[in-house]
Amino acid sequence: MAEPGVETRTRSSVITARAAATFDPVGRSVASARAFVRDTLQGWGYGDVVDDAVVLTSELVTNAVIHAGTAADVLCLRSEDGVRVEVGDRYPEREVPMQGTGQGFASLDRENGRGLLLCAALASRWGVEYTPTRKHVWFRLDLPQRPVGARSAGPALPASMLPVAEERVRVAVTQIGSGGTITVWNEDAEHLFGYTSDQVVGKPLTDLAAWPHTPGTGTGIVEALQLSRWEGSYGIRGADGRVIPVYASHLRVRDTHGEPSTVCLLVRDEERAVLQTPQRAPASERGTDSRSTDPFEVFIGSPAPDDLDGLLQRTVERARDMLDGDSAFLLLATDDETELEVRATTGLPSARQRFARVPVEAGTGRYGSARMPAVHEDLSSVPGAVPLLNSTGMRSVVTVPLKVEGRLTGSLGVAAEAAGRYSNEEALRLQFAADRIALAVESARLGELERLRRGSLSFLVEASDLLAGTLDRDQTLALMAQMTVPTLATWCAVYTIADQSSEPYLSYVLHEDEERIDDLKALLSRIDPPDPVPTPGARVWTAPAEAAQRAALLVSKRELGLGSGPPVSSGIGGTMATAAVVGGETVVLPLVARNRVIGMIVLGKPSDDHFRQEILELAEDLSRRAALALDNSRLYSERVAISQSLQRSLLPPELPQIPGVEVEVIYRAAGEGNEVGGDFYDLFPIRDGAYGFAIGDVCGTGPEAAAVTGLARHALRLLAREGFGGPAVLERLNAAILDEGARSRFLTLLYGELWPQEDGSAVLKFVCAGHPLPLRLRPDGTVEPAAEPQPLLGVMDDLELYEQVVTLDPGDVLLCVTDGVTERREGTRMLGDDGLSDVLTTCTGLTAGAVAARVLRAVERFAAEPASDDMAILAMRVHEPHKD
């Protein structure tokens, strides 16, 4: 990070254009500044950095015009490799909050200082410059570097712009005998990986290769070495234990005695252009000398396209060609690995299927899960086995999972119209191809997701500003519809509910084509509104599409003279024209405020289109903001902000990284942040190799509960770091709570200490004081309590607590929750300890994050009503040994 006021400029950073504007110290200037920066950067063709620049400018201008109370000067400077934005004010205060002081970056709830925190997170460089009368905060955003290499390069570049290697390019040359052992190891291999020739000759290459292995299949480095030729990426474990990503080219040869062996050329992965095979011309252009090759041979070894959709489409096309199929499809898994989303197809009605979702676990038996390869010789004998292929005419299909480090990331399938086309041999070939492309697909997916999230951040910043600018109900509804169309949907309708005894009323309709608004409104007015269900998230609503189809069918029959009745009205005729518009997926999101549904927003797509999950999540965020703007006063909004800030201050700012242990925490306060929660959690280092963790529940909510929460969390850290054991820590905390007198609250608490061991296990010591017992999940699916109950805190003076010791083996998961999870109710039913155990039983093989997400999902789906109690979920999973 550059020092404030200092920026090193290179020849490529010469300013080529500038734009400046001054904004008055009023609230509307923030939106004007954002529009100025957005328009300027888009005009320069710098769309890659627009979203980040808008977010940073918004925070910095807010600091100037709102907090400093002066005019803001915004200056945009363009260079060949990026953009620099300067925001100046007339308040030359030299205090700059710095991380770690307790006053700046470490306190996210403070109004001032957040702009600098965002600068540190998003900008390439940033700083602050002072004069006697002014202060300038600047940030620089570099343009993303484009790949330069064999087939992804742009035009010819001057030498000064070519990538710089730290030293000469080294090519490791190894030769593998017929038995899989290394027979040749050159000097470059010694330099790259740290092993001398004497250390590795005679050993199997599999001892060094970190192959992206897929459990359940035999495909791996051994099979790759048996191929006549192969290109791709994997890893080599160096002498220092680190995995070095390499790009490899294998060639199968034989010596004069006919003995086969494999020659391997390896370079660092970022230098893959040295070995990469040039793009081959189509077979029709290569003449009679062209040879039949694996369709994945060229594609897998090449850099991924800039966009994920292009990569996925090329993948399914080559998969279909490789197995000579009639169609192919590729689905990507959601974050919790419970559903798959259709992202690319060929030979199928892609417009109808795109972004449709299917469950990962479709049923029982060998063919019931997307986690394992499957071959269906005749789909007519197992109807519905592959829902994606229903009514497509496909008879046989082979599907294989895409996995990265053992985690399901997607599914690849090839289908044919004839029965019995595929066997286990084709499944193995397709699995081998899937293993080679899985990492590239996941990398591209994460890149796309990051871009979407940054764009979503910019969108929500502007949406929140617009919604907070008015207290008029109708204007807020109109603003919400205008923000969703066409950014999120093709059309939008907003329903409002005056009170609990009133029916939903159609308040606003908007379509991207203004000429169709009246027809759409007429159609929606003739059908019953969606039910006001408070369940969070989007749900599909089929009534508009069905009504449009019935109207279109009726009009068609009357035009052909097949029906009777009165003449077709203009309204029905307009409905027929609207049938294609509402023929796609239509979803309903509730507008919920103060645990009451105050309206609904309906989003629609044109014929046969589906919403992607990220768009629905963004729409859900937007709907929550609109609901609060509709139902809350400015004073109530300030109260929400205060309570949320207090809640964040009672929770740890971040979780430490524990060697060999994955940790995930999910926290949900009841009332969507309107109340200060009484649940809390903590995870902190005690000393080298020892970590303390806690999860607790204070009786009640509000300031009194918050006071006990803060006392408990800070006291636990202090006492643990003073060397006290678990029982001593809780006994002293109990005394401190009782000393609070009338302000005290009783507290249930699970406190433990964790020691990762060298053998990969982890030793834990527990004290469970009146709290729901922690559950242990073994790799075989067995679930059992990991502790015994003891008295809660804040009730009795003299407690006799004791410590329990448990050893978690590799692959074990420890789940700790508050009673907001186990006491989730639907009428007289309660989830309970047994229900939680049943959910945890289904989590074998999942990461800690996926376990926590699946538990939260089960709790939310258990009851339709919003949660009335706080929830905290802490999941810890001991890493399993890495498998080559």
TrEMBL record:
Pfam families: GAF, GAF_3, HATPase_c_2, PAS_9, SpoIIE. Residues 275-294 are annotated as: Disordered. SUPFAM superfamilies: GAF domain-like, PP2C-like, PYP-like sensor domain (PAS domain). PROSITE patterns: PAS. Residues 180-203 form the PAS domain. The keyword Nucleotide-binding does not apply. Keywords: Hydrolase. NCBIfam families: sensory_box. This is SpoIIE family protein phosphatase.
